[in-house]
Amino acid sequence: MQGFILRTQPVRDEDLLVSILTQNELVLAYRFYGARHASITQGYKIDFELAQKAGFLPHLKGTLHLGYKWLYERERLAVWQIFMRLMYAHLKDASQLESFYFEICQDCCEKLNRQNPKRVVLEAYIRILEFEGRLGSDLLCFLCSKACDDELCLVRGFLCAHKLCHQGTSFKKADISELFASKTSAHLSDEIVSKLYYIMLEGF
After folding, report:
1. What domains can be seen in the chain, in order of their start residue?
2. Distance between CA atoms of 131 and 87, rounded to whole angstroms?
């Protein structure tokens, strides 16, 4: 079985609770410190086995780290791990999941080899909002339900608002419209991408 480590939580001694996103579910497993394992680090993709124990969490065993070159680049890894934390917070109450979430993480890992990491996770975030039917492509103000002007503000979940309705970071409506339609940030400057990234950090 393969999956992405979304979260590790220390328990007694140096054992860990490990949350792993697989093709169809979010697995919570127990890793004993004394067992032989490859690196168990947030954001890593691993191949693993589960040993089921009656009345207890499955034990993580036989792990193999499926590495990417960019994992050794501090900035890329940091951005990726932050995105993994957002994914965990978003999916933690789900058990069965669509394969979409695993596949989007896989796609991000391929893109991180060559693209700006903030752009990669920003575009993934937008695709997730669209998949869940929460991307406001109509660009209506979530506070007054009227169409936004040429300048608009964005809040958590990339909800749109008039500048008069919500005092936040503003963007050109045309830029956001193209971003939502194309799910690519190629037309945006690095400065705008950074502003959007910090809004994304507020969560899904």
Report:
1. 1-94 (2.40.50.140), 115-202 (no CATH)
2. 14
CA atoms of 186 and 175, how far apart (whole Å):
11
Cα distances (angstroms) measured from residue 48 to each of 21, 31, 37, 83, 203: 12, 11, 10, 22, 29
For residues 75 and 83, give the distance between their C-alpha atoms in angstroms, rounded to a whole number.
13
DSSP 85-113: HHHHHHHTT-SB--THHHHHHHHHHHHTT
Which pTM value belongs to this model?
A: 0.92
Q: What is the pLDDT of residues 146-180, one digit of tens each?
A: 999 999 999 999 999 998 888 888 999 999 999 99
Q: Please write the tens of the pLDDT for every residue from 107-130.
A: 999 999 999 999 999 999 999 999
Please report the pLDDT score of residue 108 as a whole number.
98
Q: Where are the beta strands (DSSP E) in 42-158?
A: 45-53, 56-65, 151-155
Tokens of 112: 């991180």
